[in-house]
From TrEMBL:
Keywords: Aminoacyl-tRNA synthetase, ATP-binding, Cytoplasm, Ligase, Magnesium, Metal-binding, Nucleotide-binding, Protein biosynthesis. This is phenylalanine--tRNA ligase. One of its GO terms (biological process) is phenylalanyl-tRNA aminoacylation. One of its GO terms (cellular component) is phenylalanine-tRNA ligase complex. It comes from hydrocarbon metagenome. GO terms for molecular function: ATP binding; magnesium ion binding; phenylalanine-tRNA ligase activity; RNA binding. Pfam families: B3_4 (PF03483), B5 (PF03484), tRNA_synthFbeta (PF17759). The keyword Protein biosynthesis applies. It is an enzyme of class 6 (ligase). Its cofactor is Mg(2+). Residues 266-342 form the B5 domain.
Length: 551
């Protein structure tokens, strides 16, 4: 979750209250104070509240929460007379554009830091790493309207931000730090998005980098905002949040005409919510007047609409309000969770640990006693790690991800041992010995069950160490087994064994095969084991199938 730095001097000026009062109430607002320093506090906010990712947004919310200024903030939007045209060729590249003119900006050091921090936080929370939305902030006085958002040839050149010489857009992707970070968003397109002014000077190469021409400084007084993306609603949300944050700092907002349409409007959204539904959900009997008052403290416009409904005006920057229950959550925050009494549930039951939980807890206790350190590997992995590197044949029953977003996460793990070897690879720079274990779910077909695995890497790791560890684990779990030979190709022939229960292999142990070590780029021997926990006494069996007519 994003952590926002709140400088006390700037925050107190915007809120109209001292830091002690603000810091005392912040946790009750749904935030977590990470650090309190001499001149600032670092506060963590939920990703669903991007309007709080700036000092200005926090100050606006706190003025209402503290009762200093309640009700719906109203933002006047005048027409700027500035136009933007959008190239139809961008329809398959990056089609959506949002913009605004922000005048009479007065940004000191804290204000600039807040603006830049808000921009980057929105890139993460709303923009999904600039893929969905990218934001450009420009000094309007350095360029000439009208502006064009076009699909440019890739060889077009300009001076990117923080550089002094021109570079082609291809060179920016290869050489500029931001270009290398975000090249994957545009690299495969035949043309690149570009914003230019009436004199064909470059303002921005979205979603990569702005031009040096329009750098924003402490002397900037008028700002042109551009927001481009692949999702129109997300683009609009980013524009609304940025405009209203700057308006809170004293700036004036003007609309821009994009292909005949004026944006942004910053108008609130109207909805009606049920008084009874709110009371039932919160467990507190509230009247329409009480709900309206509480919502006004959360900076909504609200008034009773009869005895059963409340008319609510949702601020344009509240992107998280998608359901009436989102409104009710704000009612609860304003009412105070500390004021909601605790009641015993109407149905009283006594909980008990699941047998699987008891078994995995025992496994953890045993391995810790043997000197192993627990890790929790990812549930998703890939066939290269699970099978190819382990020299094991691919399992036809492996559960594959239908639409994976990464080549690294294409299948649900069928074993835990390969992931521990991958962890050893990632920790090659750490001192030896390293002893790791993990216990958790694996999936085969559509069935989920549990396995435990452990690895030990150091120059003296051998079969005896793996056998001793496997024997200790089985003994402490009360599992009676017979040691037998194994043909698992992940282990070295002659230095591998199997735990057999009822003539069925349920575990494997031994020295990891040198070819497997090379596949994981490991330089020392590894003693390892893996055990199917379904063999452990007390593991629950499959539920019985109900007989016909059973209830």
């Amino acid at each position: 979750m994003p952590i926002i730095t709140l400088p006390y001097t700037y925050l107190e000026r915007l809120v109209g209250a001292d830091r002690a009062a603000i810091l005392d109430r912040l946790p009750m607002f749904g935030s977590d104070i990470e650090r309190i320093e001499d001149d600032h506090a670092d506060v963590e906010f939920f990703p669903v509240r991007p309007d709080l990712f700036s000092v200005e947004g926090v100050a606006r919310a706190m003025r209402g929460f503290l009762g200093i200024e309640t009700g719906l903030p109203v933002y006047e939007v005048r027409q700027s007379g500035i136009g933007f045209s959008v190239d139809p060729a961008l329809a398959s590249i990056r089609p959506f554009l949002g913009s605004a003119v922000i005048r009479n900006v007065s940004l000191d050091g804290a204000g600039i830091e807040s603006l830049m921090g808000l921009q980057e936080a929105l890139h993460w929370a709303v923009g999904r790493g600039r893929g969905k939305v990218a934001i450009g902030v420009h000094d309007l006085d350095t360029v000439t309207p009208p502006f064009r958002y076009l699909a440019s040839p890739r060889e077009r050149s300009f001076v990117p931000l923080d550089y002094s010489e021109e570079m082609t857009m291809e060179e920016i992707l290869e050489q500029h730090p931001k270009g290398r970070d975000y090249a994957h968003l545009v690299r495969d397109f035949p043309r690149f998005p570009l914003i230019v002014d009436a004199d064909d000077r470059v303002l921005s190469f979205p979603p990569i980098i702005n031009g040096e021409l329009t750098r924003v400084t402490g002397e900037t007084r008028n700002i042109l905002l551009d927001t481009t993306g692949t999702d129109q609603k997300a683009v609009q949300i980013a524009v609304n949040i940025l405009c209203t944050a700057l308006a809170e700092a004293g700036a004036e907002i003007e609309s821009v005409t994009i292909d005949g349409q004026d944006v942004p409007s910053l108008a609130p959204m109207e909805r009606y919510v049920s008084v009874q539904e709110c009371s039932d959900l919160l467990g507190v009997e509230l009247t329409p007047d009480a709900i309206a008052d509480l919502l006004q403290r959360m900076r909504f416009g609200a008034e009773p609409a009869g005895s059963e409904l409340v008319r609510v005006l949702v601020p344009c920057y509240r992107a998280d309000i998608m359901h009436d229950w989102d409104v009710f959550e704000d009612v609860a925050i304003a009412f105070g969770y500390d004021r909601i009494g605790a009641d015993l549930p109407r149905t009283f039951t006594i909980g008990a640990g699941h047998p699987v939980s008891h078994i995995t807890a025992a496994v953890r206790s045993i391995f810790v006693g043997l000197g192993y350190l627990e890790m929790i590997p990812f549930t998703l992995t890939n066939e290269r790690v699970l099978f190819e590197r382990m020299q094991r044949p691919p399992s036809p029953s492996a559960l594959r991800v239908l639409y994976p977003i990464s080549e690294e996460q294409t299948v649900v793990r069928t074993d835990i041992l390969p992931l521990l070897l991958e962890a050893l690879q990632a920790n090659k720079h750490r001192e030896l010995p390293q002893r790791l274990f993990a216990a958790g779910d694996v999936v085969l077909g559509t069935g989920t069950y549990q396995k435990a695995a452990a690895v030990s890497i150091h120059p003296g790791a051998d079969f005896s160490e793996a056998y001793a560890c496997a024997d200790a684990l089985c003994r402490e779990l009360g599992l009676t087994y017979r040691a037998a030979g194994s043909d698992d190709p992940a282990f070295l022939d002659g230095r591998r064994g199997a735990c057999v229960v009822d003539e069925r292999p349920v575990g494997v142990f031994g020295e990891v095969h040198p070819d497997v070590l090379l596949a994981f780029d490991l330089e020392h021997p590894v003693a390892a084991l893996e055990l199917d926990l379904r063999a452990v006494p007390g593991y629950p069996g499959q539920p019985d199938t109900p007989s016909p007519g059973a209830r």
